[in-house]
Amino acid sequence: MPEYKILPNSLEAEQALLGCILVDNESQREILSDIMPEDFYSEAHKNIYKSMQEIFVKSIPVDFVTLVNQLEVEKKLELVGGIEYITMLTNCVPSAANYQHYRDIVKDTSTKRRVILTSQKVINNAFETTDGSEALRYAEKEIFNLSQKDMKTDLEQVGRPGGAMANLLKQISFLAENKGKMRGIPTGYAEFDEITNGLQNSDLIILAARPGVGKTSFAMNIAVNAALNMNKKIAVFSLEMSREQLMARSLSSVSKVELKKILNGDISNDEWKRVWTAEKKLSNSGIFIDPSAGISPFEIRTKCQKLKLTEGLDMVVIDYLTLMNLNSANEKHEKRAESRTQEVTQITKTLKQMAKELNVPVLLLAQLNRGPDLREDHRPIMADLRESGSIEQDADIVLFLYNPAKYNDAKLEDEPGTVYLNIAKHRNGQTGEIKLRWVGEYTTYLNPKEKIKVEEKEEE
Asked: Residue 341: is its pLDDT beyond 70?
């Protein structure tokens, strides 16, 4: 930006807004709760406004006398222009009727200044860094942080028309009139859906297991079920597998053609028919895959916001937490987390915030440490979450997959392929353990008594 160019501002609107505070007790309550000192361009106006805030928090009316006295106590009166300037502010508006107009101008010019200054930081970083991708990540994060400053909600009386209680009663009435209908997104697993009522909007759901248990397959089964059966739009971020690898698994799951046959092309004519049918279903589905390695939560958020605006978005799947980065490696302008545990803590907090903002469930896969392998009872527990930080605290639901066959400790009464899904935490409902059936050749989880459907035939 050329040095001679003045940042956007309106000194007249700032003066008028300060004048409104001085002459009207009603308007000052709303102004002082909505405007921040940094929203003013003039340093004198910032100091005057800070003094007004100091008076207001003491439950003392803000007027000419109290403001002058406060400025004198703070030794700022002459710095801001003296009594003459305060007198001018008191007389510069005939009434406070237009205070909202003045407030909007001050907020608008403040936002423009922040956009310009943030853009300057992004430009400077791009000149300094040697990696273009890192410069892009820095830019995305700075813009994200900028947008967050304008995201606020007000305190609201719960019983107001259209408020929280009205919305809740509307939901209850809908469920009462539609018995058996899921409030959230059905996963296709009956007992789990009965406990959770489906995956709920704004929830952060952690799915954790030891390597090789099948957490990616379970997450993709949920995504495919929601996309094909409920026409949901699903964003999948795969930090470990390529798009083709994920689609090979999904193709096997939907077509019921063994994965190894799909991978080596050893497919019969009947199997080809099932593959083409499954391919058509998946190609027309609302599944969107991003295989970016080392992606940050800020990048995920930006991509999801764009997808929601362009195509719609109902759910996000992230595979998996341990491979995520909070910041770009070459960022010099941000203080990095002191440890990986702190970094993971910040990642989960950001993803929970993203789930609330986008109003969609976020299914985040996580790796377990070696705890289950070292205990006699191999069932996972909360302490097994690797680099746990605040994972348990931020998550609305924590799920553990446990496959007894991996440890040769399957119970005699268990049917082959039995895998346990433990709902270890459920913020808004009950916990418990349910059974699933793992069919490895098709990378598919089924309900315990569910039969494998192959075209019109059914096989045990």
From this structure: yes
